[in-house]
Amino acid sequence: TNTATYKRGAFILFEGCDRTGKSTQANKLFEYLQSTGHSVKLWKFPDRTTPIGQTINAYLTNNQELDDKAIHLLFSANRWESLPKLKNLLLGGTTLIVDRYAYSGVSYSVAKGLDLDWCRCPDIGLLRPDIIIFMDLSIEESEKRGGFGEERYEKKNFQEKVCKSFSQLKQKDDDDSLWKFLDAKQSVERLHEQIVKISLDLIENCSQLPLKEDLWK
Ligand code: FDM
Ligand code: MG
């Protein structure tokens, strides 16, 4: 088979607590890759545009109440419903920059007291990212960044729990090498430089590898 010419895109994931700079860095990376001629797409979870996403949005903006397990499953369903699209993009050679994914899914629900293994189940078998760029920042620092917003989870004591569940999840992750912790206290430009370098290496290295549809398997 002619695998030599086959090039898939890379799945670059940004994760972390609120106000750690995920969206800023995801946007900057997107602009950089686009301006240097890469085929690239930016994707954000939750995707609030679908019917499931609209229910999630109503929940996050405190306009609707839902059982903790029910909303957990909706966040997961919101990923499953986008899987065919994301898969096609990657297979067609487009690099995906994704802002939050199943790791947020598990960490926020575990912070509410749900069991970690139970929380991972619905996302088993989703696409596995090629890298998780984890924006690491203390709650004190993220609070300094203009404070948290008005949405459901944007409270200091809850964010502390989310940070703890993220590190619990990383420890339990079978593929520890995926996680790239960055000190998010650095300047936007310094972080961007590091992220560009990591991403260019990754795009090169994973272009010949098959897609990994085995998250947490
Ligand atoms: N969130 C996000 C979850 O609780 N579960 C998930 O699966 C995902 C993807 O939704 F508080 C939470 C994290 C955050 C909120 O995310 C909305 P943004 O990035 O702030 O829009
Ligand atoms: Mg938010």
What is the fold's blueprint, element by element?
Blueprint: E1 11-15, H1 22-35, E2 40-44, H2 51-60, H3 68-80, H4 83-91, E3 95-99, H5 102-111, H6 116-120, E4 131-136, H7 139-144, H8 156-172, E5 179-183, H9 188-206
Parallel strand pairs: 1-3, 1-4, 2-3, 4-5
Would you mind describing this structure in some detail?
Residues 14-195 form the Thymidylate kinase-like domain. InterPro entries: P-loop_NTPase, Thymidylate_kin-like_dom, Thymidylate_kinase. Its EC number is 2.7.4.9. Belongs to the thymidylate kinase family. This protein is α/β, with parallel strands linked by helices. The protein has helices at residues 22-35, 51-60, 68-80, 83-91, 102-111, 116-120, 139-144, 156-172, 188-206; strands at residues 11-15, 40-44, 95-99, 131-136, 179-183. The protein has a single domain (8-206), classed as P-loop containing nucleotide triphosphate hydrolases (Rossmann fold). It has nine helices and five strands, in the order E-H-E-H-H-H-E-H-H-E-H-H-E-H. The longest helix is centred in the C-terminal third of the chain and has 19 residues, at 188-206. The chain is globular, with a radius of gyration of 17 Å. The two termini are 28 Å apart. The mean pLDDT is 95. The site of 3'-fluoro-3'-deoxythymidine monophosphate has 10 residues, from helix 5. 3'-fluoro-3'-deoxythymidine monophosphate (FDM) binds next to helix 5.
Strand tally, please? 5
CATH fold field value: Rossmann fold
Classify the helix fraction into a percent range: 40-55%
Small molecules in complex? 3'-fluoro-3'-deoxythymidine monophosphate, magnesium ion
The mean pLDDT is 95
Report the sheet with the most strands, covering strand number, pairing sense and barrel closure.
5 strands, parallel
Q: Tell me the strand percentage band.
A: 5-15%
Identify the CATH architecture. Answer: 3-Layer(aba) Sandwich
Rg over CA atoms: 17 Å
| Corresponding CATH superfamily | P-loop containing nucleotide triphosphate hydrolases
Secondary-structure-based class equals: alpha/beta
